[in-house]
Amino acid sequence: xxxxxxxxxxxxxxxxxxxxxxxxxxxxxxxxxxxxxxxxxxxxxxxxxxxxxxxxxxxxxxxxxxxxxxxxxxxxxxxxxxxxxxxxxxxxxxxxxxxxxxxxxxxxxxxxxxxxxxxxxxxxxxxxxxxxxxxxxxxxxxxxxxxxxxxxxxxxxxxxxxxxxxxxxxxxxxxxxxxxxxxxxxxxxxxxxxxxxxxxxxxxxxxxxxxxxxxxxxxxxxxxxxxxxxxxxxx
Length: 235
Prior knowledge:
- The chain has helices at residues 2-10, 15-28, 57-65, 73-78, 92-95, 100-105, 138-144, 146-166, 174-184, 189-196, 200-214, 219-228; strands spanning 33-39, 50-53, 85-86, 111-118, 124-131.
- It is α+β, with helices and mostly antiparallel strands.
- α2 packs antiparallel against α8.
- The longest helix is centred in the middle third of the chain and has 21 residues, at 146-166.
- The termini are far apart.
- It holds the Pfam family Autoind_bind.
C-alpha cells in the first residue's frame, strides 16, 4: 500500500493536485486539519516561516504576524527533536504557561501530532496534524497510521522544499499584491476593481497571472499559497 501511495504522489507534477491528493489521504486517516511548516533558520533568528495547509487563514495570519512560532511549544519541540510527538506529551519545561493552545482551539485546532524533519544546519520542516479537542479517537488513528503519516511527511517536505528554493525568484507586482490582498479579505473581483479604480477584467487578468506564477488552479489556492510564502506581507 505504501508503495502505491508513494508512486501515486510521485507521478503528480502539478503541486495543486499533489496537495489535494495529499489532503484526501490525510482525511482517510482521520485527520481533518494539517499544516506543513518550513523554518529556514533557527526559531530565534528567523523573521518569518512558511506555512502551507488548511488551517484557518485568519489564525495563520495572526500566528505569523505575532511571531507566535518563537514561543509555540509545538514548534520549540519540533526544532529540538527528530521524533514525532503528540502535543499532549510536550514536556512542561517546554510547554510552560503558553496560551497558544487555547487560542488555536478557537480555530478548530485542538489535539495534535507533529512530525519534524531536519535539514543540515538549523532549517527544518514539520508536519502538524490536528483535530477538534473533543475527538476521542485521534491518538488511536494516528498510531494505526503512523508509518503512512511518516511517509507523507517526507514527501510533502521534499515537495515544499522545492518551492522554498524558488521563493526568491517569484515576484508579484505591487498591483498584483493589491488585487490579491483585497480578494483575500473576501472582496469580489467587482468590489476589488471598484476599490482599485480599475475594471473587473483587469482584476481577473492579474489573478490569472498570479495563479500561473504560483502554479495553482484557483483563487482559494492562490491565497493560501501566497500567505504561506509571505507574499501578502508588504501590502
